[in-house]
Amino acid sequence: MLACAFVSSAFTYTLVAHAKGFGLPVEQLLQRAGIDPAWLNENRQIPALQVEQLLLECEVAGAGPTFGCELVPGMATSSLQGLNILLDSAATVRASLECFIRYLPRVTNCVLVTLDDSDPEAVLHVRKFQHQPHHYMLDAAVLSLVRNIARRAGRPPAQMFTQVRLLAQQAAGACLRDWGVDTAEGQWLSLHLAPRALELPLPGANAFLHQSMLRQWQGGAFDDGRKDSLQLARHWLAAGDQSIERIAERLGYRQPSNFIRAFRKQFGITPKQYRVGAAR
């Protein structure tokens, strides 16, 4: 028996925040989709059919065809429950994608992701799970994948992808072409990587950080208490190349003040005090 397709409450929260910024009546839309607003502040799985109904309600309420494309900037680490930290710190593009495929089902299983590298040109396939996701979700997924894979490799999207195949109803093609990536229509999402792209090293590779995050993900779902991630915060604070606000965002805190409180509770000092001490 197949497991029920779900979407994490963290991703759903991002979607609702985007809809609210778009001027849509989110309280009514949530009610029509059968989603309790309290779920958004919990670490839980929301049935994918209800999230897709929410997307459909957004479309009916006036969201334009590029609504899913515009959702991409809001899909930071918090939407993926810390998975991006693991992916950013991997040694190569291949290692990063293998982690993505292995652990994405902890965040959402509404799509099936596979990597086919039998030919010289590797292809990342994103297929439906039980039913076809709404095209808003597919647009957000494909643009996030292209942007993040290219960002991790430190190269423009046009150098990382030879072609991206999209479903007919998607609106992501215009954005991809603006990035210099060729597009075509397909039966499911297919991201065709440039030759030897899988073996490219990642500039942000960090073996210690990657192993720390890997142990966390191997041990179970992302720790909502974030005790392990606060240990990683100390590493980033000592490095000094990221703002406290950016570190809070990468660790999944929606407000920097929540991160500061959690850090002080665990270590007895604020992130700023820790950074100053590390610099000395």
Instruction: Indicate the mean pLDDT.
Output: 87
Strand content: 5-15%
Number of domains: 3
The H-and-E topology, N to C, reads as EHHEHHHHEEHHEHEEHHHHH
Shape: globular
The percentage helix is 40-55%
State the helix count: 14
Number of distinct beta strands: 7
Low-confidence stretches: 221-225
Strand order of the largest sheet: 3-4-7-5-6
Main pleated sheet:
5 strands, mixed
Distance between the ends: 58 Å
Radius of gyration: 19 Å
Structural class: alpha+beta
What does the oligomeric state look like here? single chain
Helix-strand layout with pairing:
Elements: E1 6-8, H1 9-21, H2 26-33, E2 45-47, H3 48-60, H4 67-70, H5 83-88, H6 93-107, E3 111-116, E4 123-128, H7 135-153, H8 157-160, E5 161-166, H9 173-178, E6 183-185, E7 189-193, H10 207-219, H11 227-239, H12 244-250, H13 256-267, H14 271-279
Parallel strand pairs: 5-6
Antiparallel strand pairs: 1-2, 3-4, 4-7, 5-7
Protein model, in words:
Mean pLDDT is 87; it is low at 221-225. The radius of gyration is 19 Å and the shape is globular. Helix 9 links the parallel strand 5 (161-166) and strand 6. It is an alpha+beta fold. 41% of the residues are buried. It has 3 domains: 6-70, no CATH class; 77-199, no CATH class; 225-279, Orthogonal Bundle (Arc Repressor Mutant, subunit A). It has helices at residues 9-21, 26-33, 48-60, 67-70, 83-88, 93-107, 135-153, 157-160, 173-178, 207-219, 227-239, 244-250, 256-267, 271-279, and strands at 6-8, 45-47, 111-116, 123-128, 161-166, 183-185, 189-193.
